[in-house]
Amino acid sequence: MSGRIDAVLGMQWGDEGKGRIVDWYARDYDVVARFGGGDNAGHRIEVGETKLALRLVPSAALHPTVELFVGSGCVVNLEGALDELARLAEVGVDTSRVKFSDRAHIVLPDHGVLDRASENARGAGRIGTTGRGIGPAYADRVSRLGITLGETLDEREFRSRLRAIRAAHERAMQDPSILPDFAEMEERLLALALRLRSAIVDGVAYVHTRLAAGKRILAEGAQGTLLDISFGSYPFVTSSQCTAGGICTGLGVGPSAIGRVIGILKAYTTRVGEGPFPSELRDAAGDRLREAGREFGTVTGRPRRCGWFDAVAARYAASLNGAHAVALTKLDVLSGLDRVGIVTGYHRGESVASLVEAGRSDFDVEIEYLDGWAEDISAVRRPDDLPAAARRYISRLESLVGLPIELFSVGPERDSLIRA
Ligand code: GDP
Ligand code: IMO
Ligand code: MG
Hints:
Layout: E1 4-10, H1 18-25, E2 31-34, E3 43-47, E4 50-54, E5 67-70, E6 75-76, H2 78-90, E7 98-101, E8 105-106, H3 109-122, H4 134-142, H5 155-172, H6 182-196, E9 200-201, H7 203-212, E10 216-220, H8 245-251, E11 258-266, E12 269-271, H9 284-292, E13 305-307, E14 309-310, H10 311-321, E15 325-329, E16 339-348, E17 351-352, E18 364-371, H11 388-401, E19 405-409, E20 417-419
Parallel strand pairs: 1-10, 1-11, 2-5, 2-10, 5-7, 6-8, 7-9, 11-15, 14-16, 15-19
Antiparallel strand pairs: 3-4, 12-13, 16-17, 16-18, 19-20
Helix pairs in contact: 2-6, 3-4
The structure holds guanosine-5'-diphosphate, 6-O-phosphoryl inosine monophosphate (IMO) and magnesium ion.
């Protein structure tokens, strides 16, 4: 018998509501696995009184029997991971179910310092990173300087790798004195690694023994397709692969292991940080979406930039991921608008433009407006009970994106969902 890996991925610039949607799909799976990113992610889940903001731990933490896996493509801040486990234990989560791949890389305190220094040096051209050292940790991994979680298990090896990576950071920096004290950092990291030891597993065997036993694995995306290092709005992206291809490289499986791919789209668009955002509303309409959708970063608290749904970007994301269907979130936030916009095209003069060109000034968007609806829809649980205008909006999105929407969310709580 062989199991299968399905996936739930963000198809915009992150914060589509992956946490709550993964929490919903997770009831049908044995394992939920993160395959990339680090604690730059912030995934909110609300179940009754329990409200979680997960950073690294997969969003099935509130399903007591589901195994939780932080895969080989992830980067792990030891202190952050241990704090997150402790916080989960406080709310009664059995954290012995959380395992980390030995091939995941660690994010060092140096990486946070390098991330922030690089942002300062970029000045007006900054990316607007979360400042959590994610980019420098992935850069060290690609430079073959990084340290894997598995390497923290051998004290001598760990010490020597730390010395080598610090020497490289010192060589690369104009002012190495801003790096944390080495001896203190070394002892602290050794102590943290010891505490995480029992949760570190052979990341390849973990996945393959479960697949061989016929278990169902759900891959949980972090960030979003348009933040993907290869296909996003480069250079205003994160440093990992957020698209479906990242599941193979991040969990160590072939494409034949991948089954259904669900893409999550918010009913409008948001983005934190800098970079092109063709459908952005820099006026009162954007402020209204931010207030109604409570669009403030889960990790950094920054106000999110807000705009209309971008059908061009969504179609691009759907094709990059080979998505089978869509889960649409935050439909309730659009209630009360006279009209709802959808971006249906980008132009530069007479010619059709691409997302990559979207940062330039001579760039226009085509917007289609649909009638809005006044009713509060947060208590609706059946598609037929939605106002006609909301149903028309949904079916227009389906035809523009070219995929069926199989699930809508109309509030942040676990059961605020409508199945198509
Ligand atoms: P993620 O990073 O993709 O998991 O998304 P975040 O958790 O960072 O941001 C999504 C935010 O929207 C969270 O605060 C959720 O509680 C909230 N949310 C999710 N779905 C809905 C919804 O359908 N309606 C409303 N009003 N809020 C939602
Ligand atoms: P979740 O999983 C939204 C953005 C940052 C910045 C860029 C690079 O909650 O959707 P980084 O710190 O990764 O080097 O920052 O990527 N970013 C996110 N935006 N949601 C996220 O995660 C993000 N993770 C990174 O704002 O623009
Ligand atoms: Mg988030």
